[in-house]
From TrEMBL:
It is found in: Membrane. It is a multi-pass membrane protein. It comes from Trichoderma gamsii. It comes from the Eukaryota. GO terms for cellular component: membrane. Keywords: Membrane, Transmembrane, Transmembrane helix, Transport. The chain crosses the membrane at residues 12-36, 48-68, 152-173, 180-200, 206-230, 242-261, 273-295. SUPFAM superfamilies: MFS general substrate transporter (SSF103473). GO terms for molecular function: transmembrane transporter activity. This is Allantoate permease.
Amino acid sequence: MSMFFTYQEQAIMMSVMWSIGNSSPITSGFLSYGVLWIKTGSFHPWKWLMVITGVLTIIFGVFVYLLFPDSPLHATFLTYEERAQAVLRIKENNSGIENKHFKKHQFIEAVKDPKTWLFALHALSQEMGNGINNQTSLIISSFGFTVFQTTLLSTVSGVIAFFTLSAAAITLYKTRNARAWISLVAYIPAVVSSILLLALPWSNRWGLIVGVWLRYTTGVPYAVVMIWAANASAGHTKKTTVIALYHVGYGLGNIISPQLFEPRWKPRYKPTWIILLVFSAILPSIVIGVLRVYLSRENKRRDKLEAENDVASNGFVETTTTDGIKVVHEVDTNQLDLTDRENLKFRYVL
């Protein structure tokens, strides 16, 4: 994505993409409802669901493999002039041209950079609440709804995810440096969700189901902060490391999340909602606030250095001619695979 779109566009595109992905409960819910009526003996309805979705996924994957280019330079649907323009238009990212050779010093810098771990902590804490997505049908059915009602009611979560992520995409399009604020606003319904599920009586099943649905606004900070982590890093090896550690946090969170639904806590799962309130709503909100303050201060420090002419716009590259003569070339820093710490012209998105 970083090779095709500016950082501003990447944030919008990620929200749009996840608005489609997170709205899958709408289509899967109605599809599940439809296959429940299929009667094919030992070949159970859930198997038909796997077959239908699996075949569609494979077909789409083939089209993506054949038609989607790995960089603007290989975009055959563009002319050579348009390919050059596609490369030049992302110059404002100040992230340099990717050099896909592993660079040890960039890896070490990524590991030592505090914001790397803040982003990873956000992924870990935020994804601890992902278990509710996998448990939604069981939770709704525990309120006394039938299998058919539960299947249809589960589609509402997709509607909420679609509209909140679409709203995030529109807001990102109309504003700049609003990633943190958008994410923080999206965590408010998650807080309300836990409070409703803790406070409402078991007899108020519609209030409880609203509490479950409200949790689905957290798809917004997931999509926004994930691309924010990538945009806040430069240098191919460093960026790759940051994204990898972010997904390590994502994976650990998803490992922990199902463990929060202990059978002994049924049916109210009160300890679960308390944990989700503290660790999957309040904690990631604090992390986002810290990240915004930290990156904002770093931008101001760099602005001050640039105003004092202490920031170099050019770097030097040494090459060797066919005759074995070493030649030093002065190039723009945007032509180098520098990290965000090495390139002081780099500005962090907020």
